[in-house]
Structure formats: structure tokens, C-alpha cells
Amino acid sequence: MNRYLLPLGVFALLVVLLGAGLSLNPREVPSPLIGKPAPPFELPQLHQPERTFTPAEMKGKVWVFNVWASWCAACRDEHPVLTDLARSGIAPLYGLNYKDKRDDAIAWLKRYGDPYAASIVDADGRIGIDYGVYGVPETYVIDKQGVIRYKRIGVVTPAILKEKIVPLITELNRG
Amino acid sequence: MKDGLILASWRLGGSILALLLSLAHPVFAGEAQPAAADPALEERVTALATELRCLVCQNQTLADSNAPLAVDLRNQIRERMREGASERDIIAFLVERYGDFVLYRPPWKATTALLWLGPLLLMIGGLAALYLRLRRRRREEAAPELSAEERARAAALLAGDPGAEQR
Lengths: 175, 167
Fold this sequence. Notes:
- The complex is a heterodimer.
- Chain A is elongated and about 80 Å long.
- The relative contact order of chain A is 0.19.
- Chain A is built from 5 helices and 7 strands.
- Chain A starts with a helix and ends with a helix.
- By secondary structure, chain A is α/β, with parallel strands linked by helices.
- In chain A, the strands form 2 sheets. A 5-stranded mixed β-sheet of chain A has the order 5-4-3-6-7. In chain A, strands 1-2 form a two-stranded antiparallel ribbon.
- Chain A has one domain: Glutaredoxin (3-Layer(aba) Sandwich).
- Helices cover 61% and strands 0% of the residues of chain B.
- Chain B is an all-alpha fold.
């Protein structure tokens, strides 16, 4: 009996390890910025380039920062979800227009609708690098002290919105 | 007449080949430019880039990848090096933003100890198991000694004595 227990035990252990491994998403690189202050910047706004935006303006408010681009197909998928978020009014939504052309971005917003309070132009992607952006779309929830509390890598689905983002915003708004 | 035709077609083929070869140099999509500007800097940039991972094509180094992010990060590395940043500074900069995953070689930490030692431990474990198994088998093979009676019985059986089987 013992002879079979050892290989069986090893096999069971392997199954557990592999099962855990297969359930993970290798494309998801957890952000080291969670819990750290949102990196500062000052960049022109998309629709009003003479005005700039800096995250310091948002101190005292919980806000959502969404990285998007007109060349990003998946951004179209999450667009209705973001529109719902903006319409609900629980937190202002700001966009980071990442490595995009101004005209394309404005046209995209006109075509699909603009859920953003404002979009910020990051033409060369520098601020994206500061925020650890490696793909589009990505979404951050930033609290009243300007600390990043959550990062969603990939499309914001209705499930993610309902289960992760909205509860977090509600909780942060309370505090 | 036929020879002339063959010769002519060879000549034609040859010149077409020559034309094609002269055209067939590799085309670089915008990357091969100022490598000549500062070769020492480029070497440092590439050396560091091979130690970093492209987060988009995750199994490639930053040096190998052609993803836009990789190009951006290489440019960042180059800029910072030009400003005088050391390799350590740049690595710290990237790890701060992207985490340990940006290092192509996982750092040696408590959480990665198993990752580094795992294969070695498994190999040692496997070799140990093999060694013990072989030793046990050798011992088992050495053990069965025939008693005198069994030896006699065996001899009788081998001699073809049918009566010996019934004992």
C-alpha cells in the first residue's frame, strides 16, 4: 500500500500546483503601485489643450483614471461600462489618451460618446510608463489622498464594475 | 539555334538573379538609425535591455522585442543613461513601476527561493530516490539464497526427475 501512496501523493501535489497555476493569468502583471501615491504629472487636456490637468487637483475626491486610445479595439468594448460608471456619478472619470493622435481621439469620442470629465493627452506614453501601463485599456481607482487603490488590467466588464470597482469607490467615499 | 536560346535564357536568369539579390537587403522599420551616434551607449542600453522583460511579449527580453512599449522603454533607458543614471537606478525605476516581473531573471527573494531552487531540489530528490531504489534492488537480488534442501530439489528438477516435483 505504501508503495502506491508516495507516487499518488506526489501526483496529488502536482495536480494542486498545476491547477493553481492554470487558474492564473500570465498576462496580468500585478502593479507595485497599489497603495502608493499616484505619480504626479501635468499634461494638456484633449479638448482644451491650453488647460492642463494634474492629479493633485483631485485631492479630496475619489476618482477613476482610465487609459484609452482610439486605436484600441478593446476600449470600445468597455466604453458602455465606463459610460454607465460616469452616468452613475459615484466618482469622476478621467481619461488618459495614451500614445494617440489628438484628431483621432477627438473623432473617436465624438463617434462613441465621451464619458470622461476630461481626457489627458499622453502622446509619447511617458506618463503611461510612470503608471506602469503596459497595455490598453487599464483603469485605476485613486482615493482622496491621491493613493492608487486598485488597478484593472484589461477591459472593465460589467462584473468587474459591479463586484470590484463600485464597492471600492463606495467604501473610499465613505472614508 | 537551340544553344543560343539556352545561353540567352541563362544570361537572363543570371541578370534577374543579380537584380533580385541587389534588392534583397533587409529592411529595418525605423529602428536602425542612430546606433552609430554613440556605440558605447548603445551597448550599455542593449546589455541592460537583455536583462529586462518585455511586458507585452512576455517571453522576450526588452532588447529582442519590437512591441511599441519595448521601444519606448529602450528609449527611456537610453535617455536616462545619457543623463548619467546607473544600471541600478534604471532597474529601480522600472521595478518601481512594473514590479519584479520586468526583470528577466527573477530576483533572489524569499518568495522566489522555491522558483530558483525548485529544479535543483527536484533533481536531487529524483537522484536520491533512484539511488535508494537501486540499492534496495541490489540487496533484494543478493538475498535469496537457496537452502541445502532447495538446492537438492532444484538439482533434481533440472535433472529431469519427475518425482522431485511432488515433494
